[in-house]
Amino acid sequence: MATGAPFPFPVQGSGGLPRYEELKEEQELGSPGSAMALRSTVIPMHSSPQVYVVPPRDHLAWSLFTTLYLNFCCLGFMALVFSIKSRDRKVMGDHSGAASYGSTAKSLNVVALVFCILLIVVVIILLVGGVITVTNLNP
């Protein structure tokens, strides 16, 4: 504001606005001489390194994709069931059971994927070989 107009609000204590009173809680928490300001945060550190166990994989997303798109002979659905069992075991803390169910779900997903890829390859070979023909139904 280059016009030189004074600031529209009066300064505190000049008669326009009442003085700001500190609340009791603000005095206790924020004043430098209070006991709260002298406290510090203590973070306990362990002298021995902690070992973190990697949780077993349940392959739930892969099983869901296999169920929805590549469900060859219901292998995708079976993989989904084993993935859910694996996740339940992992939540309960049974890591060996979760790893077992997870590896079964992975195997079922791989088998369903291989069968679907083979099916697609066979269909393409039959189309190229002329065994299967695509006809135009519109005259």
From TrEMBL:
It is found in: Membrane. Keywords: Membrane, Transmembrane, Transmembrane helix. The chain crosses the membrane at residues 60-82, 110-134. It holds the Pfam family CD225. InterPro entries: CD225/Dispanin_fam, IFITM_antiviral_protein. One of its GO terms (cellular component) is plasma membrane. Belongs to the CD225/Dispanin family. This is Interferon-induced transmembrane protein 1-like.
